[in-house]
Amino acid sequence: MKLHYYGHSCFLLETAGKKILFDPFITPNELAAHIDIDKIECDYILASHGHGDHIADLIAIAKRTGAKVVSVFELVNWCAAQDVDNGHPMNIGGAWDFDFGRVKMVNAVHSNSFPDGSYAGAPGGFVISNDEGCLYYAGDTALTTDMRLLAQQYKIDVAIMPIGGNFTMDAADALEAANFVNCDTIVGMHYDTFPWIKIDRDKALALFEKSHKRLILMDIGGATLELRK
Ligand code: NI
Ligand code: MN
Questions:
Q1: pTM, full prediction
Q2: Are the C-beta atoms of 157 and 201 separated by less than 8 Å?
């Protein structure tokens, strides 16, 4: 598995010969001004929920690439209403075997609506598992004991978790979440993009180091992260 970062909660995962884009929010993100969305190729787009800071570029990228949109039922319908018909609707607790691996949509404790305020279904996260490894993408979420279930069902190799606080977990809660899911390698997301979620990076890194866990803060558009089992 290889991971690229496009800022905020947007990652591109390369696995089993496929490219999977998570939560495309790039063009409104000043920190990602150097990223050209027209250069992003993907086979799938996984969307955790309908807030603007997760789907701003979803329709444009889905239309250009023809990528299959995987998300909660209501979000896939919202795409279809905008002529993005290549969707795979799921819901919390359900799993499906795609050609790159198995995806389970899991609980996230958050709210959810589309930018116009309309109902967007339940917010979620995803567990992606195949021969190359197991990745947990938490989405926007609070710390929740539901995460303990993931440790019972999976051997998670890497977990992508929000660390910005205010709207989601902060680094301290993400550390607790890392214990819940029994994973030592955490990739941070949902921080620094807006004033409300600015973090002290050194403090967050030191917090994880003290607990002998690895917090990775990727550079936007920077080096690819190779994930191993
Ligand atoms: Ni959100
Ligand atoms: Mn968000």
A1: 0.98
A2: no
